[in-house]
Amino acid sequence: MKLDRYDLAILRILSQDGRMTKSHLAEEINLSVSPAWERVRRLEESGIIRGYRADVDWLRAFEGSRVIVEVTLARHTAPDMRRFEERIAGASEVLQCHATGGGVDYVMHVMSRNIDHYQRFIDALLTEELGIEKYFTYIVTKEVKSMVEGVPAWAGDEVAGET
């Protein structure tokens, strides 16, 4: 789907305030309500807008530990990867999991009560025969940046005719 400046404005605005009214959004992007909301619907149907949620700071809500885990599988077969991904998709401790190319197969962001809870989670994964060859654990000491709102600066380049 090709985005124009109105679409980018909608994405920027809704990523900052997903509860904005139709009329306020239309006013912000200088369109009438119907065309503005039709654009939102199109962005939703295309999967670009995946949903509307609260941005929760879990570490502020609960004392806990945030851990980044790099996982390498022993074999790279489709069944092994599928088995690992299905297990991780159902793990409430895992906030994010990304399949990666390069030195490791997956990078996970894990939230646990404490380091002991995290280690029990990892031990359980290892005993489930998910094909994990090795994993590396990195304790998050400080969040420097978490982009949950806004549009990356380069996103408007195509609209402006740049590449």
TrEMBL record:
Gene3D superfamilies: 3.30.70.920, Winged helix-like DNA-binding domain superfamily/Winged helix DNA-binding domain
One annotated GO molecular function: sequence-specific DNA binding
This protein's record includes keyword Iron-sulfur: no
Record-linked CDD domains: HTH_ARSR (cd00090)
Domain HTH asnC-type: 3-66
Keywords noted in UniProt: DNA-binding, Transcription, Transcription regulation
Signal peptide: none
Pfam families: AsnC_trans_reg (PF01037), HTH_24 (PF13412)
The UniProt record lists the keyword Aminoacyl-tRNA synthetase: no
Matching InterPro entries: ArsR-like_HTH, AsnC-type_HTH_dom, Dimeric_a/b-barrel, Tscrpt_reg_AsnC-like, Tscrpt_reg_AsnC/Lrp_C, WH-like_DNA-bd_sf, WH_DNA-bd_sf
Single GO biological process annotation from the record: regulation of DNA-templated transcription
Protein's name according to its UniProt entry: Transcriptional regulator, AsnC family
Organism expressing this protein natively: Paraburkholderia phenazinium
